[in-house]
Write the structure tokens for this entry.
Amino acid sequence: MEKRDFISIADYSREWIEEIFRLTDEIKKKTISGEGYCPLIGKTLAMVFQKPSARTRISFEVGMYQLGGHALYLSPGDIQMGKRESTADIARVLSRYNDGIMARLFAHKEIIELAENATIPVINGLTDLLHPCQVMTDLFTIYEHKKYVDNLKIVFIGDGNNVANSWINMSTKFPFELIVCCPVGYEPDSSIMEFAKKKGFNNFRIMHEPFEAAKKADVLYTDVWVSMGQEKDADEKKKAFDGFRIDSKLLSEAKDDCLVMHCLPAHREEEITDEVIDGPNSVVFDEAENRLHVQKAILVDLIK
Ligand code: CP
Ligand code: NVA
């Protein structure tokens, strides 16, 4: 069977995503009850990191161990893909030792090159363009809390960056309403928005007014204003995003049972207040936990 990668949600169907959620449910129950589930005995995952990480590194490493396999953490200084040797050569070499690769990279084109030259599955652990494992987990978490996702009003308040881009890709698979509310000039990637217009349910729009956008929301979601690699733009971005913080006043516009979500790490009191992230609507730590369960299902699907 031809190897499959997980680079973008856009490459998969609603049916595949729902099958991953079904498997996630099964795996999560087994993990919590302590029943072993080890379909990946003897398998290894090479994890290539060009950027820092807590959740992605830990959840993939713990996940591989729990599935009976092993994960190797390759830090930014280790293999120096594209610097010490070419991305294509690293793909070929990693493929001779391992059963899968998970990579967190800057340039999205580099993960495409990695996948094109690897003979084993490549999983996107975040690039400047996309964060598909995060948004798979987010939607699973919404399912857990709401039991359905169609017709929900999901409002992303913040930067039109990798997480927002993956949310737009997800909106082409499920007919929830998606609003990305960002300052002018910080809209999501134009080719992803074009793709959503052509392939979606006409269920996605951009807004620039947080209080309008948050009205009757079922989910309020945010991400950091300054993503990894954008540190030099921090002052400019913090000014531009003034007014886009999720605080209790903004939350009061949403439905009473609105879920508050954040991919983490959070810059508390910047894009979200302590009161909201620690408040009764917040599911951010369920979301963080679910990275483990959802990614285990993806690993089993691609590598087993
Ligand atoms: N949400 C997320 O990907 O977290 P890390 O950057 O810590 O991996
Ligand atoms: N947009 C953030 C997500 C972190 C998980 C970043 O790229 O830094």
Q: What stands out?
A: The chain has a mean pLDDT of 97. Strands lie at 44-49, 70-74, 100-104, 122-124, 153-157, 177-181, 204-207, 219-222, 259-262.
